[in-house]
Design a protein that fits this description.
By secondary structure, the chain is mainly alpha-helical. The chain is built from five helices and no strands. The chain folds into two domains: 29 residues; 90 residues, Cytochrome Bc1 Complex, Chain D, domain 2, CATH 1.10.760. Helix 2 packs across helix 5. The chain binds heme C (HEC). The site of heme C (HEC) has 16 residues, from helix 2 and helix 3.
């Protein structure tokens, strides 16, 4: 009986480790999901009828997205906070890694790309 319990204990420990390894891959994994981030981060201010203007990858061509991320974003989004209740600066809330993933998604779905994408 004791032995059986030990084996069970080991098995559940192994399962637990496997599960946390999987969870780690999904959450803090190296490859960030640009589409998901665009939805979560950008769409909050750039959804349909948003005062800041609606934006989706296919709203601009690749050249415009490249210029936006390289030059304009840092200036035009500088003073903005995440929301009225969350006063974290947008520029701080979006890490360089997140921004890179979003940039890649926008370029991939730009108006002149192979697969223009309507929404993040
Ligand atoms: C907190 C709200 C907010 C968030 C978050 C936000 N934006 Fe904006 N965005 C604005 C506002 C406000 C403007 C208008 C700035 C202006 O006209 O000076 C703007 C302008 C833009 C423009 C027009 C070009 C420009 O620079 O003015 C683009 C493109 C854009 N945003 C894309 C994005 C993308 C992509 C993200 C996600 C990485 C994002 N925005 C996140 C509020 C936001």
């Amino acid at each position: 009986m004791r032995k059986t319990l030990n084996v069970l204990g080991l098995v559940s420990l192994a399962l637990l480790l496997a599960a946390s390894a999987l969870a780690g891959d999904e959450g803090g994994g190296k490859k960030l999901d640009g589409k998901k981030l665009f939805k979560e981060v950008c769409k909050g201010c750039h959804g349909a009828e948003a005062p800041a203007g609606e934006y989706a990858p296919m709203f601009l061509i690749q050249e415009q997205w490249t210029k936006f991320f390289a030059e304009d974003y840092a200036t035009t989004h500088k003073g903005l906070t995440v929301s009225e209740s969350d006063t974290t600066k947008v520029l701080d809330a979006i890490t360089p890694e997140m921004l890179e993933a979003i940039r890649a998604f926008c370029l991939e779905g730009a108006a002149d790309s192979e697969h223009p994408m309507t929404c993040g």
